[in-house]
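Build the 3D complex.
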Amino acid sequence: MIRPTFRLAGWCKIILGGLAGAALVSGSPWPTRGSQQAAQRPLAEKFWPSEFGADDQRGAANRITPAKVTSAARLVNKGQIYQLGRLYEHGMPIPGKRHFSLTIPGLPTSPPTGSNKMVSNDELFSGEIGQVGTQFDGLGHVGVRLGGEDYFYNGNKLSEFGDTYGLKKLGVENVGVLFTRGILLDVCATLGKDRLPAGYVISPDELAACLKNANLEIQEGDVLLIRTGHGKLWMKDNPAYAAGEPGIGLAAAKFLTDRKVSLIGADTWAIEAVPHERADLAFPVHQWDLTKNGVYHLENLDLEQLAADGVHEFCFVFSPLRLKGATGSPGNPIAIR
Amino acid sequence: MIRPTFRLAGWCKIILGGLAGAALVSGSPWPTRGSQQAAQRPLAEKFWPSEFGADDQRGAANRITPAKVTSAARLVNKGQIYQLGRLYEHGMPIPGKRHFSLTIPGLPTSPPTGSNKMVSNDELFSGEIGQVGTQFDGLGHVGVRLGGEDYFYNGNKLSEFGDTYGLKKLGVENVGVLFTRGILLDVCATLGKDRLPAGYVISPDELAACLKNANLEIQEGDVLLIRTGHGKLWMKDNPAYAAGEPGIGLAAAKFLTDRKVSLIGADTWAIEAVPHERADLAFPVHQWDLTKNGVYHLENLDLEQLAADGVHEFCFVFSPLRLKGATGSPGNPIAIR
Amino acid sequence: MIRPTFRLAGWCKIILGGLAGAALVSGSPWPTRGSQQAAQRPLAEKFWPSEFGADDQRGAANRITPAKVTSAARLVNKGQIYQLGRLYEHGMPIPGKRHFSLTIPGLPTSPPTGSNKMVSNDELFSGEIGQVGTQFDGLGHVGVRLGGEDYFYNGNKLSEFGDTYGLKKLGVENVGVLFTRGILLDVCATLGKDRLPAGYVISPDELAACLKNANLEIQEGDVLLIRTGHGKLWMKDNPAYAAGEPGIGLAAAKFLTDRKVSLIGADTWAIEAVPHERADLAFPVHQWDLTKNGVYHLENLDLEQLAADGVHEFCFVFSPLRLKGATGSPGNPIAIR
Amino acid sequence: MIRPTFRLAGWCKIILGGLAGAALVSGSPWPTRGSQQAAQRPLAEKFWPSEFGADDQRGAANRITPAKVTSAARLVNKGQIYQLGRLYEHGMPIPGKRHFSLTIPGLPTSPPTGSNKMVSNDELFSGEIGQVGTQFDGLGHVGVRLGGEDYFYNGNKLSEFGDTYGLKKLGVENVGVLFTRGILLDVCATLGKDRLPAGYVISPDELAACLKNANLEIQEGDVLLIRTGHGKLWMKDNPAYAAGEPGIGLAAAKFLTDRKVSLIGADTWAIEAVPHERADLAFPVHQWDLTKNGVYHLENLDLEQLAADGVHEFCFVFSPLRLKGATGSPGNPIAIR
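Done.
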């Protein structure tokens, strides 16, 4: 997520137009608890230590206990696998100045060798690997600037853990594996819509309605996947896909984090509504989920087949690439029933 | 696998020294069945169509049926996950002229935005993504040149399916997900060794002994992971790790493909013994497994914890990145018990 | 040049629509001299050895003798330098699946070091470096397929000099430095136009008129820069810039190569008219100039200031990056008077 | 320059060992003029505005006036060109975690097109383009941290002009072209040595002796190229090349900047002696030349042929790539006589 372009796009000028005067009053970076500012900004108060301990780097992945793994495996009864990751391909929607390049050097890369005339091919990739296409946002992805410092999950300061060649803390290699129960929250079906419009803010009640429809309750450590229908635009109408999206706002995010989920995914590029619910806040759900609560995001998912088959509860598996010091990971998460 | 450097390295001159006279006699590219050449080279005869059909692009992944998935899930009883993928990091062994670069652009990549002062980081990756570090070899990776054409799995000609920006057939996006039963073949423990030496050729009998020790039999669609101890050198003695390796030869490869496995993995960079069993054949096991049989390879695995815990049978999950037209995939495969 | 996209673009379907039946009749790759085919295709006959010798890799750069260098330097009288290279920047027109990425890793890349608190920045570039933005086409860039082989300048076969990690012959490092006399052929001014339309084919007579207007004659080894006005679209209307261009055809190319120039440049992305004069020939001027005659191309130049100042004769300097085995080079060529 | 590795190398631990206690006393970032600290660190005092004006971004390139250009051109009498740039190639010395990758996608990149069967090749580059191989250090490359801010040439603050996708000020595109008089200071020949040892600190007197030997005086705007003989190690003994180098210290740097040169080059990777003259200062000559004086550096030059031919005065031309917002540039600078 976090599309640098959007700062330049038309509606963003509107969104961000009122921000100039909203800078933090200097002095103490932390407003007093209960102040008006605190109510408005997700990270207006000191937000650490994490409930998982002051040194924790795994966040809500800690909720996936061995018992949780075992019970998730028990959800596999038909042996049917759904690939939720999209193709990484030329022409997919990529925001701002990020890029994606995949080439085959040489074709074949290695010429015939040996009396067995072996030939082989490689592929060369260049791009913002954890932030193009289907992507997992790790805890080094989003933070908040307060008093001249950039604070991330568990109060880690970027000036201390940042490094040109990979973060020294909060790297995606710390996450481990997300093998847990997954739930599909089919919001657009529940609302009787084909596709929710950009900027539509999904409410907690709507999430609750989805759960009720599916006769499911959220349990600690679950992965929640939100279907908005926006994903139907992927590679069909990329400008519309990128221009905005429906999604949750802070209230629905709180609904989910209160229920101690481990990860929130969606068929959108940012999980949260864009344009945002409050024009002056940039991607506040990212801050709430990742920075404050250590709950991960998984974006640009393909949830259509799950929905078509009416699969609402499943074994979910995602194993991030162990890219040392990376802020995110590409991947092909799966749902199995 | 397939290290371009090795063509330059000292022992390779020896290996390949006798090849000049071994070029195929032109005319018909296919020697008559039963000829001496056919006996010597894994792909000396027309090797297609595949048993999975003349148009198949999934190879041995087809063996992972829904029933296989379900029974693999039943192997999860303790909820314990083993990450078999290594860290992708600067300084890891990389052959030839391939490279790995990971940087954080900007730090933070996006400056503070909104009244909530959101900051964010990306990571930029450049490298042969499916062929550095822990890597999955797809069916577009290895082929054979015969009569001026480069043939791959199922007789596909590179001149027809090759493309500068991603293969038009046999791309890794066709594989799907490997969710199946896994078996650890702990060869070095079975042989009472700490680590097998480079060039050691593992025999079919030794694989059978591993199975017997573990009281297991191979079933169709299984993933077999071969532990040689060579992986102990990773990031400890990288030159030794890269200079050669123990591994299977053609006989042991045939032992496994006869038993209809889906994938062979190892704690080495090429699965097969290097220097090779026969000096004139370059990576013949790759051709046998991938090109002829459609059986996948997974290299540079970390199998130490599995072995230390005595885990020989487990639920194995690997979901390749859906890189359109790629020859391989990075990843963090897992074993769960 | 050579935009893979154009194969996909609307008008290209028209251009290339009639090609299916035009494939070379197999058997001898070389049509008999004087055949109809020979008249139609620039490289229909054996086109080597080069006039510079059968082993030559420098092509028309050989025409720049020490005497030529000295006389070019004598053209510097005002000490005024014109930068003809465009900015390499995000958003510049890039064809097909090529890409351009420039980032600053870390910002600063190196944190404060020493008691003098030195900090430093690098930049990371990824892209088709010799084929994006202002670009120099070397002799490894364009060739012709005949009888199953790809032939390049001086009859070099790609199957022999091609290499995944840089060409073994004809690499841009062989060119040396182009320090010579330059001439501006201001075609659009001569024709009284602000900008020539896409597809406009500049004739030999029009080039001769430009020379006459400037009271100049071409001498061996000169660099000729053709101004069409198309460059005014750069970063102003990129889709129009990329969709086509005015330029020379085979007749004007022959006019220039007959006069033994060393390089032809233009304020366009391909020097030659697009759509092409003959719909069935793809970039025939490239083949004529580079492959047959060893005359270089320099594309995406900014010639506006030269024209505005009425500078038609000047000292021209371009020193390609010595990228070993590369097919081209980026650069900032200059004109000095 | 600025090799992140060296912080890790053996001798660097020694060099930097005493720095922990040397941090700036907080409060005012600027020590009082004449304090002991000021005498010890090149940028201990406020070092701006530049003599070229408070808004200047070109630094010492301003010294190359039209008259200077014209007189430099007059030095061309034999028409002999020396290429001072080295080959960019796999295996060249690259410090730290920077990388260089050059591949030919596809080979050919574009398959046969048109009835003329045109084929073409590109090259894909990935790497720290302005900081690998022969490299030009621009004014955005090196700065100093003082009081929490990173200050660069003319007092520009990185927090203000830094940008993830290219610097907003001091980018290399501002430099223009260096077409001026060049002087070879052949220090190793003057000292009767084949090659100066790593850590050798060249004195002002030694530079003066070189000038006297050549019967030359420095004039404003000249380019000075320092030959140490260290360049003989390039691609011959890369570890020795990278482990350290002879070069100037602050005194010789001041000798040159007092004489108002525009650029200092050398056959080394950092111009200045490594290990440094004073162990606690990291690359102080870089700060003196670039950050304070706006005098450019050009590193990893090949000066052997110039020296062999006894060429001490010449026309020098270097035209940096116009990479928008880049900190440096690759290139092939030339000397012509």
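Chain D touches chain C through 108 residues (CB under 8 Å).
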